[in-house]
UniProtKB/TrEMBL annotation:
It holds the Pfam family Glutaminase. Belongs to the glutaminase family. Homotetramer. This is Glutaminase. It comes from Paenibacillus prosopidis. It catalyses: L-glutamine + H2O = L-glutamate + NH4(+). Keywords: Acetylation, Hydrolase. One of its GO terms (molecular function) is glutaminase activity. GO terms for biological process: glutamate biosynthetic process; L-glutamine catabolic process. InterPro entries: Beta-lactam/transpept-like (IPR012338), Glutaminase (IPR015868). Its EC number is 3.5.1.2. NCBIfam families: Gln_ase. SUPFAM superfamilies: beta-lactamase/transpeptidase-like.
Amino acid sequence: MSLDEIDRIPSLLPQWVESSRQYCINGKVASYIPELSKAPIEALGIHLIDAQGHSMSAGDSDLLFTMQSISKVFTLILALMDNGEDVVFDKVGMEPTGDNFNSMLKLELVQPGIPFNPLINAGAIAISSLIAGNSPIEKSERVLNFLRVLSNNRSLAYDMDVYRSESETANLNRSMAYFLKDNGVLDGQVEDVLDIYFRHCSISVTCADLAQMALVLALNGKSPETGETLIPRRYVQIAKTFMITCGMYNASGEFAIQVGLPAKSGVSGGILTMVPGRYGIGIVGPALNRKGNSIAGVALLETLSNEFDWSLF
Ligand SMILES: NC(=O)CC[C@H](N)C(=O)O
């Protein structure tokens, strides 16, 4: 951390959170998964950890929320570690869609059945079928354990209410999964694959958990505590590239211009981002903008990135 930042972040962060919080009223909490609609619309929290383990937080950083699409970054990494690049990129592409995360439009239009990338729902469902394990339960446990290691939090667990709520209402994801199965993209039973997907989306975290996971990516896969390699550098590179090109849905270009950091958002209002080599950052703000990203969270990141010149570009 540069001296300037050490001095300024802790004192400025609370006021930046409060000024960004005012955008919440222009956003909407997701409700297509009924349980998510219970989230507090005015909440905004942030947690930052630097490479030396110093942490800072402000606002509602203790709020628990589900990872949702943020988990897709880590199932991609685990699928790469389990199968290698050739197998994974046989099932999913490497390109942004420009469409909504749950769109089916290009699934049939371009290369039938092959999702454009692993961060849209269709791509992440295909990735769920590539997680190694002898049973759907074992596969889900491997994902949860991987995230427990990366977050350095052994008690990470599912939010079963959100899990059930999504599982009961996921007609669109179900239809995509059956379409993928029909095109030979999914291995195994469709419902088993969907169960793995719903479970990893419903892993419950705080901003500190996201910041810790992000810090591992910021350090190119190394544990901040022990220096041990938790993820091969090549797979971190792939994940970070997808975060830049597709991590903020079809607002990824705008986010790259305004903030310029690899990031992944989720429909519960979480954002995981990092300043490579320096910080892991976790944010929550359940009020979403029209593209589905945390409206206040994006505003807060724009302020931070501009103040400290964090853009990679
Ligand atoms: N954008 C998201 O976070 C979407 C994840 C959510 N579980 C879904 O499939 O719809």
